[in-house]
């Protein structure tokens, strides 16, 4: 069954499908902390959350797309608890640290295998990652900043509605964080005009600085006067980064890690220190000259991208990120036509760890599946 077929099914059919999957079987065997989840295992809780979605007052007014997104967010929100659950040897309490972070990757992998469209997949994956945030809003030093930041990562309305269903989808009401905590999220998002759309910053640079600074100012209006533009490519081997550059940035010089490896005769499995050092030197030369250019590498991990983004920002460059992800079978076929073929197992491993870029990392984001793009 693929995504187009599955999303048309009833909740009962979707649940029945899930119960044939290994990740769901693991949830049904995963215990939870009895004081927080007296209903029992993770799958029991998940089914209760799914039921609670349909009880939401707002449910009938949601679009079909919004309903599908919430159903699959519920399905996957605790999918990584079996991978993260541990029992405290002294207290006997059950914990699942970072299950939401790992759950994002599991959800993305399952949805990719179902051939879910890129935009919907990322919408669900990020709701899985941030599904617990509204309950902890009042513990944040700057609650308004939390709501604004998340508005550029998820839809705050859907995040709030899911948090309601998640809170209600358990037996131990006395141990749940009060729903009033969740209403604060809704109220703050509405007051900041970012409940149903991203917060409106003064300009692109204001948004970029907000995401980069330790103590940002929401209403700062920076002057946009960039030294140059850097196009940072993101994509798995075989995703078509070279082709995209030749079509859309053909007049930009390119700093390519693959080209530097060839120049230095360094294999991708060798130590990459020398390659990265030379790439940084060439980037600095172009940045100092105020020359716009493209930086071409896989860049699929946020930590890796951040190092390069920080370098470009130091020279006051306008940073655009281009993320390419065609259908996975197309990536594997295209990889085999490369001069240096990357083993399929490596591409699968990179895909499982991939963290697609967001608007908080750059001034401009272009996302394309090879057929269409959104910017």
Automatic annotation (TrEMBL):
Q: Which UniProt keywords apply?
A: Nucleotide-binding
GO terms assigned for molecular function: nucleotide binding
The record's section on InterPro entries has:
HD/PDEase_dom (IPR003607), HD_domain (IPR006674), HDIG_dom (IPR006675), P-loop_NTPase (IPR027417), tRNA_CCA-adding_enzyme (IPR050124)
User: This protein is called what?
Assistant: HD domain protein
User: What is the scientific name of the source organism?
Assistant: Rubinisphaera italica
HD domain residues = 42-136
Membrane-spanning segments? none
PANTHER family assigned to the protein according to its UniProt record, in alphabetical order: MULTIFUNCTIONAL CCA PROTEIN
